[in-house]
Design brief:
The protein is mainly beta. The protein has a single domain, classed as Calycin beta-barrel core domain (Lipocalin, Beta Barrel), CATH 2.40.128. It has 1 helix and 10 strands. Strand 3 and strand 4 form a beta hairpin. The longest helix is centred in the first third of the chain and has 15 residues. The chain is globular and about 40 Å long.
């Protein structure tokens, strides 16, 4: 877990900025890139991310969000770090348990960057992916 926290700091650092004076951006909209799109709805209490048939609803008050698909259960906790939203998700499935992190941030102009860091505690497996979307 400590390795995951340090990796998040390294990955999120350029996207987070200074905590003082940062407002929480509205990430709402339909965001596209050549191979995919996602739709985000945000209100004061929740952030809903839809991609294809998958819908994830995150509580923005720091409390756990729970959702599942078949035998797989997810527990996610979202929190603001400066003007970026960091979502830590624990997945429990028949093949194991692991944690993933996603950092959502608005970049210059109408661009949304999503940095994903995935790990599996059962196997020494890790990945990092950065996706940039443009507002449609």
């Amino acid at each position: 877990m400590q390795r995951l926290v340090w990796l998040l700091i390294l990955v999120a650092g350029p996207f987070v900025g200074s905590v003082t004076g940062q407002s929480r951006p509205d990430l709402s909209g339909t965001w596209t890139r050549p191979d995919s799109s996602l739709t985000i709805r945000q209100d004061a209490a929740t952030l809903t991310v839809s991609q294809g048939t998958e819908v994830k609803i995150y509580n923005l008050d720091g409390s756990d969000s729970r959702f599942g698909k078949g035998d797989t259960q997810y527990t996610a906790r979202a929190r603001w770090v400066g003007s970026a939203l960091v979502v830590a998700t624990t997945t429990v499935s028949p093949i194991g348990t692991w944690e993933d992190l996603e950092v959502y941030s608005l970049d210059y102009g109408p661009k949304l960057t999503v940095v994903s860091v995935g790990t599996q505690t059962r196997r020494p497996m890790m990945f990092t992916e950065t996706r940039t979307f443009e507002k449609r």
